[in-house]
Design brief:
The protein has 315 residues and is α/β, with parallel strands linked by helices. The protein contains ten helices and 14 strands. It has a seven-stranded mixed sheet with strand order 1-2-3-4-5-6-9, with helices on both faces. Strands 10-11-12-13-14 form a five-stranded mixed sheet, with no helix packed on it. Strands 7-8 form a two-stranded antiparallel sheet. Strand 2 and strand 3 form a beta hairpin. Helix 7 packs antiparallel against helix 8. It binds zinc ion.
Length: 315
């Protein structure tokens, strides 16, 4: 876990000052990256990247082909294809993007061009069609990191607004949009028969969550989304988070409660005239830790600042 976080974020320390997407190709070195595959349940697998900060890729092996959830960085498509081939030699039938971020959906540049259908929320297609600039959020290093527009044949081909179901043999795959949260196009994917949920970055395990509030994200919405995720799970549901290992609904509820506390304490603290530092010192839960990345206190302060920003309390 610690290693994962270090690899994920440190590259930005060196390159975020220059807002060129070329740097993405410089800091991701496929020779130093590998894939770890875990069988989640039955015919569902999770592929985690080691050494690059990949979003978790979900793989469902159906009778007529593979359904992939997220496609990671374009540059590691060979590694990803290799990892998938070890699971099954069936063709990739379609891909579902959990959201537009490049560590989850940049592989559209490769798989889209190959003509593989890509399913996403409508706003993913809209955002990928344009240049996007990341919100620094809790990680200052991401500020002004630009991601170039995708070409037409690299965009999602099937989009939805609220919810949709896909049917594969006896499995029904439900895709839910619960409103603004991590971004404004987050999909939560549930394999109903297997009782497995892939949350994308609507739920993660690296500490305080990065929420892209300048690209449609909302901290308030993120908390609400966690409640909706909990509602589609039971105690036996296996959850694949956007980053980190397999978990269950208790982890989701805990994050929801912790973030709600952050939110309420920040708003009430501000009303009492407290500074960000004073609000921060009144919150004693360990979501402020960053598992080795950056300064935990700065991240915590940035999260509190983001809550104030979202509520137009500060500019
Ligand atoms: Zn994301």
């Amino acid at each position: 876990m610690k290693k994962f976080i270090l690899f994920f974020f440190f590259p930005f320390i060196f390159y975020a000052q220059e807002i060129s997407f070329d740097k993405y190709y410089n800091w991701l070195n496929p020779d130093e990256m590998s894939m770890k595959t875990t069988q989640v349940k039955d015919n569902i697998y999770m592929i985690e990247g080691i050494g690059g900060g990949f979003g978790n890729v979900g793989v469902f092996v159906g009778e007529n082909g593979i359904i992939m959830i997220d496609d990671s960085f374009e540059i590691i498509e060979e590694l990803l294809n290799e990892a998938i081939a070890k699971i099954s030699n069936k063709r990739i039938k379609y891909i579902i993007n959990t959201h537009y971020h490049f560590d989850h959906a940049d592989g559209n540049r490769y798989y889209g061009k190959k003509g593989i259908p890509i399913v996403s929320h409508h706003n993913v297609r809209t955002r990928q069609a344009e240049i996007t600039t990341a919100y620094g959020g809790i990680f200052d290093l991401l500020e002004n990191f630009n991601v170039p527009a995708h070409e037409m044949d690299e965009l999602p081909t099937v989009t939805y607004e609220n919810t949709m179901n896909l049917h594969e043999g006896n499995e029904t795959i439900s895709i839910h949009y619960f409103g603004q949260g991590h971004t404004d196009g987050d999909s939560i994917i549930k394999f109903n028969k297997a009782n497995v949920v892939h949350t994308g970055d609507s739920f993660i395990l690296y500490g305080l969550p990065y929420i892209d509030i300048t690209n449609g994200g909302s901290i308030k919405g993120f908390i609400k989304t966690l409640t909706h995720i909990a509602e589609i799970c039971d105690e036996d549901t296996i959850i694949i988070p956007g980053h980190g290992g397999l978990t269950n609904v208790e982890g989701v509820k805990k994050m929801r409660d912790d973030l709600q506390l952050y939110y309420n304490t920040t708003i009430s603290g501000h009303k009492k005239g407290l500074t960000i530092e004073q609000i921060s010192s009144s919150i004693n839960i360990d979501l402020g830790k960053t598992n080795g990345f950056g300064d935990p206190l700065t991240v915590k302060h940035n999260f509190i600042r983001s809550i104030l920003l979202e509520n137009n309390i500060i500019k």
